[in-house]
Amino acid sequence: QKKRFPKVVSLNSATFSDSTNNGSSNGELLYASPLVISQSLILGSYDISDGLCTVKYLNTSPNENETDTQTSVDPTHTRQSVDPQKERLVRDTIFSCSIAYKDDTAKDDCLDIISSLTAEELEQAALTSYAYLSASTNPQSGGFGKVSQTDARKVMALRMAHRHYVAENENKKKALAKLVGAIKWRENLGIDVLRTCFDVDEKNNFLVGDGREELRSMIRKEHICQAMFICGYDNENHCILMKYPTCSVKHMSKSDFLMTHVYLIERAIACTERRSLGKREKIVATIDYRNQHKESAPSLSIGKEVILALQAHYPERLHNFIASDTGMIFRFLWRIVSTFIDPDTRNRIHIIKGMDAKEKHLKEKISVEEATPWIRQGGMKTRDFDFNEYYMSIPFDHAFDE
Fold first, then answer.
1. Is 56 helix (H, G, I), strand (E, B) or coil?
2. pTM of the full structure
3. Tens digits of per-residue pLDDT, 164-200?
4. Are 126 and 132 in contact (CB under 8 A)?
5. Which of 239, 253, 226, 274 is nearest to 94 (CA)?
6. What is the rounded distance in angstroms from the CA atom of residue 375 to the CA atom of residue 287?
7. Beta partners for 199?
């Protein structure tokens, strides 16, 4: 069963590439489900059994200095072009979309919150919107349209203020403090650079500098352990973020885990913003636990820190979380993790096992046209995930197979 395979190994719908054939071992056994994984991720020997592929040798050492050496996008995965005029119209609609304030008092409180911000904080609050970031920093996307940058800045900053205001039970003082804290957190993590780490210039070369090379490597390595991408939308145009924790990687670092999840959450929020034209701000997150390996879960310390960070800095962003076909690992961790998740968030988390239960719970929420087969019976999103296509061809605010 164990043998060397030349260059490419195909297994069901998956393709695993071996680019060096050097046979050096620096990783643990990895169990991979049938997903298409980038050529630069995996090399070594392969063991095939029971519909899974066991990869013994990995080029993913815990070396923190390892960076992504790829400078240009593969010609077969050229970035999809966008129509600047169409993008301006979409952004005009987003920037003009009204905010669902509870009443005039809530509106006035949110205006008071943003009036307390410095000019730089106001700009950073607006930049939480990918539409605003794209218009501000990417001339190829068409810039601002009928809505001026000044007006767009105010609207998108108000949206951030309103999310924190709602999360803090309409306490204006607490909302302001949490908003400023979130801005500082985003600046410290370099969220704007993170969102553009797979962007390319006019020659189709990756943008470099500000740590983008390290971020690309970080995301690539994390995808070996758990493929994550946006695929489909629910009936209210909340995007669906999917995660497959199928692999065993001992060397999971807190920074890799956090930054990869933040990148995907930011991408999911951007997809919801574009698809709903600004009417929705939340996402649906789903995890398929059918093939979960016992060592694919993060440590409790990493999991707790990441959950608390997302809870503090992404208020009012989760529409629903669906844990599908969970096993003993999840149930054990959930009993611990759920204790430090706030009650409102816990009410949005649904643990569903079996297709009958999923049909009952999701039939009225997600159409078969927007669902994968493991979410809805007869789901039509059946394309295998392609890392290179998703990260190198598809725009940041578009879903896979959209």
1. coil
2. 0.80
3. 999 999 999 999 999 999 999 999 999 999 999 998 8
4. yes
5. 274
6. 10
7. none
